[in-house]
Specification:
Number of helices: 29
Shape: globular
Strand content: 5-15%
Strand order of the largest sheet: 5-6-4-7-14-3-15
Radius of gyration: 29 Å
Oligomer: single chain
Distance between the termini: 12 Å
Structural class: alpha/beta
Length: 748
């Protein structure tokens, strides 16, 4: 690695980098950047200047993160100065034109027309550019926390925000307990519970957000900075913030959000930030407003204070108009999550810069974001949810049978009258039950073919799923209406989660998510980018068909059911979605992106700017080899789909890792093709052989396995770091096991 500089130079003069005759002032935290860092920042600035995408490869230890932050923030700072300068020039020109009463009358007529037409204001001012927004994406929040630490060490103090889920940010105990009852499968259960808590008065943290935003950032979200501009229509009370007795749902129509997406006067913002340090006790404050740069831990700490703001809604409000936003992959790549967390009311994607750190994960992350799996458990829960909605609305309809027309009219006004008939939910339940039967039929047919000695394909083409759905009358004509019924049913069972029990609404959410992705792909003509699969029985769950025994007691028998999958095989599907949003530039950075031609081809987007910084490890220190067979020399190490699940393969692979670990003095890092393959191998080594114990016992190495769940990643990462510390003192080492998307690195 490069030798680290002696110290950070916070007040060293900015570095001037000239790109296409434009000089950018970069406030680099070290007095003398390495040549590779200068080259990288030049490439970044060139890509941003041209509005194109870039692939940036630079080894670990060469300062990728600080180069990405400083170069993009320098570009944003330069563009903002130009924007303000252009705006002031046009104001002067506008005054000069007001020489006659005729010209003034024409301008008034033009202003009226501009207010009626969305987006014409910018065109009228000569295409005044919007502010540059930087979105910095990495795999996990723990990695983003390191990036935020790097940003705090620079002279830049942009208005920043980190995006997180309610599960990570909510500090309300009632919501947390109720969410546990609903189970992890209900992705949006916490969202519904949060709204219930805010509306019922069980949580008042959201109401403190307005006070915090006004005190720290000078943004009055209660009365609205922009009420006059919007004709007095804005009412901050409708957001549930600050001094108000109203408890309406946040962003029911999201109209108010579009107002908050605009920033107040820059002078007010900077003065507020400098007075308060920006953090009000959250985050570190070094006198430069660095307290406003908050990570997940800072937000939660702020929320737990007496009269503290809700961390989730505080993060959301900080995101509106933020200059740099930090987010995990899923918040950018998954369209549904992106729309909820970073929709049009939160940020303007036009003129945005999206940075993918650790971008060697981008291909698989994009494929995963565009893929969907629907297990037998999901379908069974959807049947249960639809039945719960049917029972509930049947009871409501029965109770309203004796009402007069006037009484029914009044109940509609108050929202107590059902919006659709109970029969709609009964139909929905029938469709899901039919889908469950059709999936079972496909599995039975496949098993019969295997019994006859036929070889089944590992997957089918993308059209297979639509042929299967058509058999239960789910098609392009019925899809939209079915989704509406699913949403209504999910809302009912989620809000009654304490009565209905664990998993409420989870099945409907999963089915809706699956159908949304499938039919969106069909509408865009992307079916050829997908493969379908109806897999063999794998997961145990409570059977929905045998609810009671002959004696009337509930049947707790466990059954096994298949999984219906719709897999994206082309990561470019997601990259194109980002381009359609109007993103100015995509910057993909990693230590390993080569070969870049094939990488860019997979993403199906142009990357005219490319950088391959030289590796710092001398060539003579690197050896590459391949093991064709295991220690027995009898089994080929063929990791293709057909062979990798055999006992012989898993046994030989485990024995090979054991041999390598024994003769390697330091760390060993093992990559697998997928999480599934890794899990099956580890289970086999633990339960069917002594390989797992032998590695730990005979090599004195700590075994660390990368988890698939993001919540468990931090714990594994800490275990990995502890193993490194022990290796320095006790000469111990470790074996890191990860899939091909893993971020584990061997620094020994």
């Amino acid at each position: 690695m490069f030798p680290p500089p002696k110290s950070r130079a916070h007040h060293s003069p900015p570095i001037q980098i000239i790109v296409q005759n434009v000089s950018y002032s970069v406030k680099f935290p070290f007095p003398e950047p390495y040549p590779s860092q200068i080259v990288m920042m030049e490439k970044i600035l060139f890509a941003l200047r041209e509005g194109t995408n870039a692939l940036l490869e630079s080894p670990t230890g060469t300062g990728k993160t600080v180069c990405l932050l400083c170069a993009t923030l320098a570009f944003a700072e330069h563009e903002e100065k130009q924007r303000i300068k252009q705006k002031n020039t046009k104001k002067k020109n506008t005054k000069k034109r007001k020489d006659t009463e005729k010209e003034e009358k024409e301008e008034k007529e033009e202003d009226l027309e501009l207010k009626r037409t969305k987006g014409v204001k910018e065109e009228y001012t000569g295409g005044e550019p919007s502010k540059v927004t930087i979105v910095y994406v990495s795999r996990t929040h723990s990695q983003l926390q390191q990036v935020i630490s790097e940003l705090k060490a620079t002279e830049y103090a942009p208005r920043s925000s980190v995006v997180g889920s309610r599960k990570q940010l909510c500090v309300n105990e009632w919501v947390a307990e109720a969410a546990k009852k609903m189970g992890d499968g209900n992705k949006r259960g916490a969202e519904k519970l949060c709204k219930i808590a805010c509306n019922s008065g069980k949580c008042d943290k959201k109401r403190n957000v307005g006070t915090h935003m006004e005190r720290v950032f000078g943004i009055d979200v209660v009365n609205g900075w922009f009420a006059n501009q919007w004709g007095g229509e804005f009412n901050g009370g409708s957001l549930g913030y600050g001094r108000t007795t109203n408890h309406h749902d946040f962003g029911t129509k999201e109209r108010a959000g579009s107002i908050l997406s605009q920033l107040p006067n820059e002078d007010v913002l900077s003065s507020k930030s400098s007075k308060s340090g920006g953090g009000d006790g959250g985050g570190d404050d070094d006198g430069k407003g660095k307290g406003s740069i908050m990570d997940i831990e800072d937000l939660v700490k702020e929320g737990k204070r007496a009269n503290g703001p809700c961390p989730y809604y505080l993060a959301r409000e900080m995101t509106r108009g933020a200059e740099i936003i930090f987010a995990p992959y899923s918040y950018i790549l998954d369209a549904g999550v992106r729309k909820r967390a970073l929709g049009d009311t939160v940020m303007n994607w036009h003129n945005s810069i999206v940075i993918f750190d650790e971008a060697h994960n981008a291909e698989s992350a994009c494929e995963e974001a565009a893929s969907r799996d629907l297990t037998a458990v999901h379908v069974a829960n959807a049947i249960k949810d639809a039945d719960a909605a049917f029972q509930y609305y049947s009871m409501i309809e029965e109770s309203m049978e004796g009402l007069s027309k006037e009484e029914k009219k009044d109940s509609k006004k108050t929202g107590t009258y059902p919006t659709r008939s109970a029969g709609d939910y009964l139909t929905l339940r029938g469709i899901f039950a039919a889908l469950e039967r059709e999936i079972a039929i496909v599995c039975a047919q496949d098993q019969e073919r295997v019994r006859k000695g036929e070889t089944l394909p590992s997957s089918r083409d993308g059209w297979f799923i639509f042929d299967l759905l058509a058999k239960v009358n789910i098609n392009m004509d019925t899809y939209a209406q079915m989704i509406e019924v699913c949403e209504d049913a999910a809302n009912v069972v989620s809000m009654r989660a304490e009565e209905i029990g664990k998993g409420s609404g989870a099945g409907l959410e999963r089915v809706k998510d699956f159908l949304d992705r499938a039919f969106e792909a069909k509408q865009k003509g992307l079916i050829e980018c997908y493969r379908s699969r109806v897999g063999p029985p794998e997961e145990e769950f409570s059977s929905t068909w045998s609810k009671k025994n002959d004696d009337g007691r509930e049947n707790k028998r466990l059954a096994k059911g298949p999984t219906m999958s719709f897999w994206c095989m082309v990561p470019g599907v997601i990259v194109n979605e980002l381009c359609e949003l109007g993103v100015k530039s995509l910057l993909l950075a990693s230590g390993t992106l080569s070969p870049m031609d094939s990488f860019a081809s997979e993403l199906r987007a142009p990357f005219p700017v490319r950088l391959e910084n030289p590796h710092v490890i001398p060539q003579e220190n690197v050896w590459a080899g391949a093991f064709l067979k295991g220690p027995s020399n009898a089994v080929s190490l063929n990791s293709s789909y057909r062979f990798r699940d055999t006992e012989q393969y898993k046994s030989e692979l485990g024995l090979l890792i054991l041999r390598v670990a024994r003769v390697t003095p330091d760390g060993v890092l093992v990559f697998f093709p997928s999480y599934g393959v890794m899990a099956k191998c580890i289970e086999f080594w633990k339960t069917r052989t002594s390989i797992w114990n032998d590695i730990a016992r005979t090599t004195k190495k700590t075994l660390v396995v990368e988890p698939k769940e993001s919540d468990a990643f931090l714990e594994a990462f800490e275990s990995f770091n502890k193993a490194l510390e022990r290796s320095k003192t006790n000469s111990w080492s470790k074996v890191g096991l990860t899939n091909t998307d893993g971020s584990a690195k061997d620094d020994e």
